Amino acid sequence: MSAQPEHTAPAQLPAPAAAAELLARIRSDRRAPQWVPAFERDWAAALEDSRHSYSLAPLHDVVRTWQARLASAPAVDVFLTAGRDDSDGISLDDVFGGRQ
């Protein structure tokens, strides 16, 4: 008998170099002037949280959030260039949950 529930899959952890690779992708994006400082701010806050909690979870959350943001950017561009109304949008924090 296993102590672990059989129905839960372990969370996929980002690779050790994921943050550096992600920052390189952000820097090559046309949104770099806005996104690089935002990523660095999120990363610094998560790093501080990790120091206090002895957990890498805050850093993993930042990587996952920014990966999702970059992955969805082309679809957002298509949506906006099509002249769609984006006034009813929601915050990414509402979708993924804000950091505690």
Describe the structure in your own words.
The chain has 100 residues and is mainly α. Helices cover 63% and strands 0% of the residues.
Q: What are the main properties of this structure?
A:
100 residues
Explain briefly what this protein structure is:
The chain has helices at 18-28, 32-53, 57-81, 92-96.
Topology:
Elements: H1 18-28, H2 32-53, H3 57-81, H4 92-96
Helix pairs in contact: 1-2, 1-3, 2-3
Helix content: 55-70%
**Range of strand content:** under 5%
Largest sheet: none
* Mean pLDDT rating: 84
Order of helices and strands: HHHH
Distance between the termini: 35 Å
Low-confidence region ranges: none
Silhouette: globular
Number of helices: 4
